[in-house]
From TrEMBL, chain A:
This is ABC-2 type transport system ATP-binding protein. It comes from Tumebacillus permanentifrigoris. PROSITE patterns: ABC_TRANSPORTER_1, ABC_TRANSPORTER_2. One of its GO terms (molecular function) is ATP binding. Residues 6-234 form the ABC transporter domain. Keywords: ATP-binding, Nucleotide-binding, Transport. The keyword rRNA-binding does not apply. The keyword Transport applies. It comes from the Bacteria.
TrEMBL record, chain B:
It comes from Tumebacillus permanentifrigoris. GO terms for molecular function: ABC-type transporter activity. This is ABC-2 type transport system permease protein. The chain crosses the membrane at residues 18-37, 109-130, 151-179, 207-227, 234-252, 286-308. It holds the Pfam family ABC2_membrane_2. Keywords: Membrane, Transmembrane, Transmembrane helix. PANTHER family: INTEGRAL MEMBRANE PROTEIN-RELATED, MEMBRANE PROTEIN. GO terms for cellular component: plasma membrane.
Amino acid sequence: MKQAIVEIRGLTKEIGGKLIVEDLSFDVREGEVLGLLGPNGAGKTTTIRMIVGLISRTAGTVKIGGVDLGRDFEAALAQVGAIVENPEMYKFLTGWQNLVHFARMSKGVSEARIEEVVRLVGLEQRIKDKVKTYSLGMRQRLGLAQALLHRPRVLILDEPTNGLDPAGIRELRDHLRRLAEQEGIAVIVSSHLLAEMELMCDRIAVMQQGQLVSVTSLHELVGPSGAEQLLDVQFEVDAAEPARQILTAYVGDANLVRAVDRPSSSGHPHSELLTVHATRKQIPDLNARLVQAGIAVYGIRTTVKTLEDKFLELTGGGGIG
Amino acid sequence: MGNLIQNEQLKIYIRPRTWVLVGLVVLSLLINAIFAAKQVDVMPDWKEKLTQQIQQEQQQLLDPSGKLSPQKRSQLQQRLTFDQYRLDHNLPPTHTTSWLFAKGFAGQLGLAAIVCIVIAGDIVSSEFAWGTIKLLLIRPVTRTKIYLSKYIATLLFSLFLIVLMGGGSLLVGGLLFGLDGLAEPYIPNVPLEDMVPGTLSVGQDLLITYGAALLYLWVVSTIAYMFSAASRSSVLAITLTMVVTAVGEIVAKSLPSFSGMKFWLFTNTSLLQYFEGIPPFPGMTLGFSLAVIAVYLLLFHAIAWAIFTKSDVAA
Ligand SMILES: Nc1ncnc2c1ncn2[C@@H]1O[C@H](COP(=O)(O)OP(=O)(O)O)[C@@H](O)[C@H]1O
Ligand SMILES: [Mg+2]
């Protein structure tokens, strides 16, 4: 297990008696991209603002590289690069002047390093132009550049894909993956769009109404694929109760998802729909047992759970996207 | 800190707005020059007039009716001493020199004060308006250092403006009237009680005048800076400072009988009153005024610093 660079414990924010972020605890490890996923208003930006010290913490601690933010702000922030919401830069300065400005605020950022970062984000052509002439995509790049200047160990991006076209999102994803994998940077990205998180992140922390619902690796969330993958398997049978006993005896009570009564309609006799979690391998067995018990099986349907389904399950169906 | 101040300077001087404001001050200097050039110089008969005036003053000092208060008497005596000095040293009272022109320009601080208020009132709040405050505050630099660097940049701007006004007016004055006369003794219109003629040169007086002007600009800049850091709104900060300054000055002038007014900030902000003219209340000295100003500024900073460093940035 790689070293945790960001350690968040019991992070809480209360404004006007209202809990906006409640008792958040999680770690972000070296070389890992952690997605902070949640619907608008879930408290993602508030959490990020607390991590970078823009707003005070009602309770809890934030440690960056082992340094407590509340104890030594400068030493903690020296290891952090961030964009909070939109990357607003000085419009009357050129991109280069903006970077020089922010470079002066950290120790040991040489001109060569600024040039390196400019190349990294692909702004060489326009870096000497005033920021007011930049497109949103270029401002995002410049924002990323200012966050990377001082070689941070942690990169925090709040809704970085807002306003980016699919190509821009792809490019950002590649950047982040490279930074994490090659430079060992710990990355925190927030988004309200699951599809984007899926592509970028190693782990996803799901937030809802200020609370952390779960932190799962993408691997766990999607689950294993192939013969071992748990599917939703729906059996259409004539007798619900005996069928249920047979099925649960095999897969266990916990894996019975639902039983629905399907009334008869014209050309269609009355039937029961039983859904269980089972692997693909188990389906013929289950079917054989039902048939042996004299239960009529009218149909078998399988559905693979998408990440979206899992997410809806986790958040209790709270709106996303 | 040096780097931070450099950044703040960059952001002030790179903006065209700053140069428009500075340009207005330069324009007012040129307008002054045009009027000064048109003024009639030394009256040829000034010696006779001054002699007459000295005789009058001697008459008054004899005080046949005995109505002269000791205070009035010493003031009159002092004026007589200086008029006599002027006559003895052949210093005409109404001639225009480059130093007089420069001193006159320092008296017109209103525009410079407004320029300083705009710069200082905008320097923190504009970062909030631009949204750049977020990027500024997530650096490995404490908010106190950001606060100080912006304040120092504000003070340096006032210094720049004062140097520009002093240097510019001496230059323009020098072109119009020549640069000689800077070593001449300085003779104020209303001399202080304990002043000995000839001890202060015209050049020294000019330094004092511009020093006092700089201090005044620093006071108004600090008020604007405080409002900027605390309110996070440029419009509010600039407007409030103008109102507070205007009302403060009016109050200072309109309550001359209440001696508690000597602790009022704006009773103390014109330091020139300790070099020429009469301080409004007995017991007021240069040191007293400096101390009163320092206490006010520290108080302003305590409030603005606390708000700036402690409050949430959710812009
Ligand atoms: N300064 C504030 N005062 C009151 N409520 C706030 C404040 N800031 C944020 N909120 C509320 O907190 C919730 C979380 O906001 P935010 O952190 O911006 O969510 P997200 O970034 O996940 O969309 C929202 O309901 C928002 O209205
Ligand atoms: Mg947000």
